[in-house]
Amino acid sequence: MNKISLIFGALAMAATTPLAAQPRGDEPVAVPRSIKQGIDFVYVDPQMANVAKRKQRPQNWLARLFDFGASRRSAPNPMFLDLARGLEHYQSTWGRLPQTKIPAGAVMKRGSTGKRVALLRTRLGLPAVGGYDEMLAQRVSDYQRVHGLGRPDGIAGRATITSLNLGATHYAKRIAINMERAYRLPQTRAFDRYVVVDSGAAETYLFDRDRKVDQMRVIVGSNETKTPMMAVLMRNAKANPYWHVPPDLVRTLTAKKVKEQGVSYFDNFHYEVLSDWSGNGRVLDPKSINWRQVAASKANPTFLVRQKPGPWNSMGQMKFEMPNDFGIYLHDSPLKELFAKEDRWISNGCVRLEDYRRFATWVFGQMPQASAPEQRIDLPRPVPVYMTYLTVEPSGSGVMFRPDPYGFDALAMPQMFDSRMNIAAVATDRAAG
């Protein structure tokens, strides 16, 4: 039975103040700066905060032995357990190597010799004598693969040396940060079904009775328009949705397009103009609006511009709504080719689904049939959606690190650790779990 010494703690859960009702379109609203998104979740629905007490003040991290095989009514999320095992493996492999510092210098590769090569060999657990041979190149490749340094090539360049000099403790702390995020995910038996959106991986996972039954690629927010870490209930979907253009984009973008292309822009790109945001607005002739004045104004317009349903619509064929103050939801996308790219951090914050039909079939039990524009389809039961951010992935050989596109790991380091808060060593004695 494996035991591991973990660091657990709870940071304050930040409640949000509802935003004043206003026309804002189908685009996200920035998360307030008071919410430290390195670790903190925004619990939109209080019943989902089942891991830590709300309003709990940050405390000193305490070492705790966790028994993987213990029988209990509920346990931390499976993603947490995988990371915990990954930490144990990392500490027993890469963490046991000499933490030798390697001075900056020229790129080292097969055939290189000298003092820096000897230090590199020592750092990776090889005898200092031997030069940059095939064995060292393989060790460098293994290190690059585990630590997310791009395509492993066995060449010790600047990025590889910088990573090695950060040391194993730095990476163990990154695993612990990701464990803390995963610890905020649902405990076992908390929900029958739930969704995890991982904006660190740009992937979405579907869980049924704590078992991952499906996953797909997603497109999430860019570094400038981050997808927030939050927990919310998905309550309905809308088939054949309109896209409501945010008022500031009408002023800064739509008006500019009309000036360049004329009012034919609306027909060409399937837009229409309504008198207001009430839901009962009159359709207006775009020619009746002074677009130059709209573009020059500092105030947002009160009329509504929306894109009609269809294969051209920015929302795609369906969007999945989760009431929240930040305008975040999941939706289809007409730009399917973007899901083949590795860089999928390009949205304005909302989550675009690779296969909305597969997602909808799982959510509803079958693919809903709808033909009317903006047809609302309520879920039989709300489905919890946890939007997290993981930069460490469990693997068959421990863990693999990913880039930190939002900089949340760097933000979380001082939240979780100071000079006295170091990860405890793996426990070897029998202690209470």
UniProtKB/TrEMBL annotation:
The active site is at H331 (proton donor/acceptor), C350 (nucleophile). PROSITE patterns: LD_TPASE. Gene3D superfamilies: L,D-transpeptidase catalytic domain-like, PGBD-like superfamily/PGBD. Keywords: Cell shape, Cell wall biogenesis/degradation, Peptidoglycan synthesis, Signal, Transferase. CDD domains: YkuD_like. One of its GO terms (molecular function) is transferase activity. The keyword Transferase applies. Pathway: Cell wall biogenesis; peptidoglycan biosynthesis. Residues 193-386 form the L,D-TPase catalytic domain. InterPro entries: LD-transpeptidase_YkuD-like, LD_TPept_cat_dom, Peptidoglycan-bd-like, PGBD-like_sf, PGBDSf, Transpep_catalytic_dom. The keyword Nucleotide-binding does not apply. GO terms for biological process: cell wall organization; peptidoglycan biosynthetic process; regulation of cell shape. Pfam families: PG_binding_1 (PF01471), YkuD (PF03734). Residues 1-21 form the signal peptide. Belongs to the YkuD family. This is L,D-transpeptidase family protein. It comes from Sphingomonas xanthus. The lineage of its organism: Bacteria, Pseudomonadati, Pseudomonadota, Alphaproteobacteria, Sphingomonadales.
